[in-house]
């Protein structure tokens, strides 16, 4: 089992990683107000009196945000707390109009859960690994500060202020940047399957606070640093690597790691102390007296559970049971859109293994080339099933299918119509194939002699010649059979 | 419990209230007076007592996920939001430059 | 005809409906009284045009046959309620000049019911105070003068001191107040008027500048019990914008008013009889019990064992909530900004808040910040909330033995301005009888019951079980009918 280690001057160090992921909950309106959440609006247009913390304004929770957090909790096998409540986290900052963030400290909505990251030998993850999730709580996002628009002022945009977030807090169970990357990707997949977060890291829908400490193997946990708001899987991995090396170097030089908040610089791949948060915080958490405890009925939780889709692990297992390769099953389930597309293909009757091969090679290849996402595929699952059906029933060969698929992409026409129009139907008439085989063998008597003298590799040459003579339309199995019969 | 001048200074900082040393010093006995008085709560036996969460039994009703259903709690009122701002520019609130 | 400003809300409503006078006449009469009483400093902003406009509408509605419950009734609005287009400051410098682009739910309900606004009433800053000496806009004076010959300016009580003073001086027939730990009842008692704090959650808090969210309740202050019932009926009701709002129908309290207490039990809490209690207060309390007996009620002795811990618990919980509620006053979105050259964001916050908040507000923010801070939270805040649970249990148990509770509203009559402002703790003790009901979220009202030896009003308090405003009002009415409180402040302003 390969293990990730930082090799310092004093030996090998283990890295201990925990992630606090802030995921924007998919909802139309904000967590405590009716203002919209859509990305990219003009500054301060999606701000209610509540979000701007005008005097006398009060929060009322959005049921959809609660529902999505509960569904997410159920998706990670977590305990759902039917009784939870909101607390205020008090601090002063320009992006925080109330002077406090409404969050959940003492009684979070979602308790202990876990997810499994998949073995990935290339990434040094020897086997599947459960990563504990301590809790998920629901809280408000802050506004945004713009620093570069005025020489002496920062500008405040409250559009994001009050947008609902889930803070998903992992246990410090990860031991390498790769594991952290796998955890984030898996978490993102689950959120997107559930539909509780769009997982769009560029737009800030998901960002991670990265807690890193180092220790000699078997020793007590070291002091951790928290690198805030890292917004891509790659950056998270970079931040961990940088932090781990920095901490090892610091300790080995006789220094001490400060428990502090740090910022990641994506340009340099480094972290640095966050100046604005330098002073030690005392957040004075207490239950928000503007809100009552959040009490969920069993029916509510049951409805959340009933609304859950098949999740990535279950779906992958189902695909593998259909004789789809583990690799293809992994590829097909990694993104919810691909999985949905593939399920639709299965639903219209496509056979699993062949369909999986075709989707992961032909379809993904074409989409990649065209720069399209699977949602934008010019070929629908129904049209693909028609194509795959023609291969399965022997109407066309696999190689003709590639041509037909190209024409489908160009014209948007159906596979059967293209085969008919272009005369691509596979020749399965054994008589016609035997005629062609005889003609090829006759024309290549020298090669036949070589073959019979032991040059078995020439078999493929004969197959190719026959297929060529029949414009690729011959049923390859029948060609093989006929050649074997003739050549003995 | 009681507070000293350093603690009061720290609280003032936490509360973001600028306070000259004289004011801090004056507050020390005042706060200690009040704290000594509230300290009597410690003598109450609260074994098995839950802290108050909702003073009147009442279930919290949640809002539906509808945008701008009520203009009083919806968005799209930037002019109102910025109307009282000491420094509003280009649709933003202005604050002294922040270095993160 | 009696002067229009002598009329109660019910008399204005009924007289206007009967055609005895126009609403405009009423509004003009009260506007004139407001303008003539600036010496009381009861108003921060006068809005005669608002009152007149509503009056014109009331007269038009009468002609059209579309009268509303409060048509022709002009009222005063405590400056804690956000009023659209009219400066709302909570009597603090930090909100000076703030003009809300929105209307509080309670004030909106009043305007929708036809009421007009005479102005924004002065108060203790952010409702923190019991004497109306903490307003940035100056002390409110009580219209009352002691007959001890001192002629000292008296406190109207607080925090709804402007409301109390204005109603007592006939500047408005009624006013809104808010009560966090006695801020309706204590000033009502000090000025010889009535006021009711309903069950927590009856009145929406939306648009009311928050002091302590788990305690704040709006309520009416008026000359008599009936007027309180009328106004409360308009102010109360579920509001989806306030998560703590009670989703209950609003009874017609006025229609169900009745002073016959036969079959009712009135509890007398023995712990409220403090050592060294003012003799006049004790005598009034006894007289009150006799009056309720006369109304048919049975007096029962009850115990509220945690009473002595109510005030200290309150002075942890209320400042803790306030320290957080007042964090939004930071000079960014509204109100005062104190930004010196080269100052950073955090410097601006500290300077703004130092300049904007008054001494008592700062004191409470400091206490609240301290009791919530790391290492102290459980010892103070959690402990106080546990004690609060015990206080609520005391009441719940008491209400298995009685229907309402009778107690004094305040431990003394009004005191002179300045007399207690030097000692915060002495000031806090003013609310010793008012705070327990606040902590338990219970409805409670004060009705004027007697005069002190110095000729100053004293109030009796009725505390009811949760949701039982009717029981409180009925007992209040029984007291009112028997107390025959007719004394009033001689006009000197
Ligand atoms: Mg964090
Ligand atoms: Zn968070």
**How many H/I helical runs of chain A?**
15
Distance between the termini of chain A: 51 Å
Class per helix and strand makeup of chain C: alpha/beta
Q: Taking strands numbered 1, 2, ... along the chain, how are they ordered across the largest sheet of chain C?
A: 4-6-5-10-11-9-7-8
Describe the structure.
The complex is a heterotrimer of chains A (488), B (100) and C (493). Chain A has three domains: 6-300, no CATH class; 310-422, no CATH class; 430-487, Arc Repressor Mutant, subunit A. Chain A has 15 helices and 16 strands. Chain A has helices at residues 63-75, 177-194, 233-252, 298-306, 312-321, 326-334, 336-347, 352-370, 381-392, 398-411, 415-422, 430-443, 445-452, 458-469, 476-487, and strands at residues 6-8, 11-24, 83-84, 87-90, 100-103, 113-117, 129-140, 144-146, 153-157, 164-170, 206-216, 225-230, 261-265, 270-273, 286-287, 294-295. In chain A, strands 1, 2, 6, 7, 10, 11, 12, 13 and 14 form a nine-stranded mixed β-sheet that branches. Chain A has a three-stranded antiparallel β-sheet with strand order 5-4-15, with no helix packed on it. The longest helix of chain A has 20 residues, at 233-252. The radius of gyration of chain A is 30 Å and the shape is elongated. Chain B has 100 residues and is mainly alpha-helical. Chain B has helices at residues 5-14, 21-38, 78-82; strands at residues 88-89, 92-96. Chain B starts with a helix and ends with a strand. The mean pLDDT of chain B is 95. With 493 residues, chain C is α/β, with parallel strands linked by helices. Chain C has a domain at 4-258: Amidase signature (AS) enzymes, CATH 3.90.1300.10. Chain C contains 15 helices and eleven strands. Chain C has helices at 9-18, 23-35, 48-64, 105-112, 161-168, 185-191, 225-235, 279-294, 307-325, 345-356, 359-372, 377-398, 424-428, 435-439, 469-483; strands at residues 43-46, 74-78, 116-121, 174-179, 194-197, 217-222, 265-269, 298-302, 404-408, 444-451, 457-464. In chain C, α8 (279-294) links the parallel β7 (265-269) and β8 (298-302). The longest helix of chain C is centred in the last third of the chain and has 22 residues, at 377-398. The mean pLDDT of chain C is 97. Classes of the chains: A alpha+beta (488), B mainly alpha (100), C alpha/beta (493). At the B-C interface, α1, α2 and β2 of B face α9, α10, α11 and α12 of C. Residues 22, 139, 167 of chain A line the site of zinc ion.
